[in-house]
Amino acid sequence: MQGEGSRERKWDRMVGMLMMGMVPVLVSSCAEVGVAPPMQEGSLRAREAFEPTGDMA
What we know:
mainly alpha
């Protein structure tokens, strides 16, 4: 039982790291195309915009 919980926690951490790693990549790629505002001012706004669509991953 405890092994399952720790495995689940590790998976959550991996998913969290993946999402936090993906957000800057998405923002920078969008910024390159010209869709998103520059990283400095738009990083928080872009992160908020990407969070609801996180289930796409």
